[in-house]
Design goal:
Radius of gyration of chain B: 23 Å
Mean pLDDT of chain B: 95
Strand order of the largest sheet of chain B: 2-1-3-4-6-5-11-7
Number of helices of chain A: 20
Strand content of chain A: 15-25%
Number of helices of chain B: 11
Low-confidence stretches of chain A: none
Distance between the termini of chain A: 49 Å
CATH topology of the domain at 3-210 in chain B: Rossmann fold
Mean pLDDT of chain A: 95
CATH topology of the largest domain in chain A: Pyruvate-ferredoxin Oxidoreductase, domain 3
CATH class of the largest domain in chain A: Alpha Beta
Structural class of chain B: alpha/beta
Oligomer: heterodimer
Largest interface: A-B, 74 and 60 residues
Largest sheet of chain B: 8 strands, mixed
Largest sheet of chain A: 7 strands, mixed
Helix content of chain A: 25-40%
CATH architecture of the largest domain in chain A: 3-Layer(aba) Sandwich
Amino acid sequence: MKTTPQETKEITILFAGDSGDGMQLTGNQFANTNAFFGNDLATFPNFPAEIRAPIGTVAGVSGFQMKFGSTEIYTPGDQCNVLVAMNAAGLKSSLHNVEPQGTIIINTSGFDKKNLNLAKYNSNPLEDGTLANFRVQLIDISKLTQETLKDSDLGRKETERSKNMFVLGYLYWMFNRNMEGTERFLKLKFGRKPDILDANLKVLKAGYHYGDTTETFTSRYEVKKASLPKGTYRSIMGNQATAIGLIAAAQKAGLQLFYGSYPITPASDILHELAKHKNFGVKTFQAEDEIAAVTACIGAAFGGALATTGSSGPGIAIKGEALGLAVMLEIPLVVVNVQRGGPSTGLPTKTEQSDLMQALFGRNGEAQTVVVAPKTPKDAFETAFEACRLAIEHMVPVMMLSDGYIANGSEPWAFPNSKDLKPIVPQIARAKDYETEPYLPYKRDDNLVRKWAVPGTPGLEHRLGGLEKQDITGDVSYDPDNHQHMVKTRAAKIDRIALSIPLQTIDQGAEKGKLLILAWGSPYGAIKTAVKRLLEQGYDVSHAHLRYLNPFPRNLGDVVKNFDMVLIPEINDGQLDILIRNKFLIPTIRLCKIKGMPFTANEIIEKVKEIYE
Amino acid sequence: MSESTLTAKDFATDQDVRWCPGCGDYSILKQVQSVVAELGRKREDIIFISGIGCSSRFPYYMNTYGMHSIHGRATAIASGLKATRPELDVWIITGDGDSLSIGGNHLIHLLRRNFNVNILLFNNEIYGLTKGQYSPTSQQGKVTKSSPFGVLDHAFNPSAVALGADCSFYARTMDRDPRHLKEVLKRGNEHAGASLIEIYQNCNVFNDGAFFTFTDKETKGGSTLFVEQGQPMTFGENKEFGIKLDGFKPVVVKMNEGHSLNDLWIHDEQDYMKATLLSRMFDVPSEGSMPRPFGVFFSNDRGTYEKALEAQVVEATEALGIGNLDKLISGNHTWEIV
């Protein structure tokens, strides 16, 4: 029977296997190939915190979900159309997520007695009717891989490791994609190990040919190119976009970039990325701990560098005292918090938005910082750049709240040209400006911003410190009135930033109406998809998405008051909700999901429908 | 301002010095101001960074760039500054609590990385600013406000900590010996690498006399050993004692009992093993105990972190070319949507 490709607008596919099965690599390759083909897409890697979690168990499953399509894609999808299960545990952990009549590709060698026991299956789901309502494709991937490589000199362990290439090749056939991109990738990755390269290329092709020659089923898909806006695109992950955004800002500001960091999941990839780019003058410093990472930044900032640090919730918590010092010193500092499930060690590899209150209030004293948040992986570039601009031009610490979902997710990006990026103007004090008047460290301009006098500048020698400052002179002061004045001034300085940032806009829907969905950060895609569908169904619903969390855009009060109801979905227990209620004295509706997982569009849709019932 | 005209007074600020009258810090401030004036560095290129504690007020009194930061972190702040501005002359002012308790981690890592900075560790064996609790260098058994029945903690030995962290320069000196203090400060500043200078400093309010054995005229001679490069180790009021090495064990000998200078341990600052022996001469002073060594224990050039970092930037730039922002933003794989 000849297969007839089934045309479809979008496909959600989930790869599930052992942590050692190479699911992340397979997923990323499949994503890149589809992006290159011209699909829009979004990805969601979901893996255990353990490097080698117990093999064959549900806890050890590494998943990679993605949605790609010929339409615009904002989330990695809710229910899967296709599941690739490399073993029994992969099937067990993901089956509930597959649509009825969905396609399940099974590696049968992952369903032997041992694997079934490890996955705690009492009977074999391949035989007991569990999969009756799905389109199942049983392939003995391990055996076929071994067969393909029977003439290879590689040992069984090594040949076994290339079985993910079989899956990938098979999917390329199934979705009619060419293998060139992956072939190029393999050549780069294994260029120095010709036998391993050869094995991977052979298995990749074997997978493709297997699909081509067996043809015993009908589920082959055709997903056409998306009609994305014209332009040049690349694929980008959130942490990578953050790193590039920091470099771009340093280049635009003409400053040396310093990144002090202590490794922590899921922020470490920012350090890895930046460490590669020393030819941009980037200096990365892997510090002995989180405190040293941020305080080294304070030293670098005092010396005139664009100082940046990155961490996740637990690390940010111990940076708190130093952030207070940066607030007091009024120096530029950018802190990237790639949030994860908390409290304490919490869920290191799972996403959460629960550090908003920490970002705003997690320090001793009245110690405000600017807080911004990206909404998607590609938006992390622009948000990181903006964080740097605000820090440098306003002499203030800025915290960027990314999260695990943004950090590891990827999407196509119509990247900007560097000449179109905003200029960044450092507030540097020059010796020639102080020939007739003394440099007073805390003398301010109209935006309440003080001048940055860096060591090496003759005549501007001065001492800063964590003790309360007398305004203008910067001398130590215990004067009660001065303290109140300084607390208010530091806050007012941040409030004035609201005058120069963009007004809050409505992302979708009417400017006025019954229901506004107000959100921040990574739930963007799910809300975008949900609101699109709800509008198609005739619901009165609008969506506004905040990039600036402190200060809020100056028209935010007007925006929320244009609606009868405000729904605030968050991957936390209602933190923005508290802020909005407090600031605007309006009733709000919470939608909190605290499962370490992003929202699905359906969860948003259901909530809206419930509100309208 | 021309460099040569700078004097100690040029490094004083208009701030009132607020240490207690009689504090050992005054003597150290005076010597530091005098030494930096003699160095010939421009005032704008000198930075003093401190943490928290009595000594950490120091930057306010130096007319240079300066930062009075947070407890224990001056070493880390200085690391970031030096990493980005290697040409600056960076001095860290810290105390026994600041550097060995709350900031212990940053101290050891700065030492192993070997940033070219000067660390002046004011050791008074007490917490002064918080009014009299024991510190990590307080002697076991000492009665303080927070140890009415005596300190239980075993005291830290800063020289052993420093050498254990592979410091490239360690010296010990004291506030009551300004000439020696000044000499050691100069040596530390000359050293290209992290120089840890431990200064015994008397807190006349909360721990008066902690070091009197080493500073008092009557006991000083017998309880102190001033080491000098290439010189045999002698001590005593009239240099009547010497230190001899019996294998790896230092022993005290009387010079009039048939020992000549040639028999004695000759100090070699380059010798790490012998420096560790010096660091272990750390008895609580008592009748017949080993003298406490002062001076430069160890000095070794082994390349600084900031130079290696600069070299990596140069190397990467040579290998990859000067970074092109547009190429970075676009990455290696792009596609067109038309």
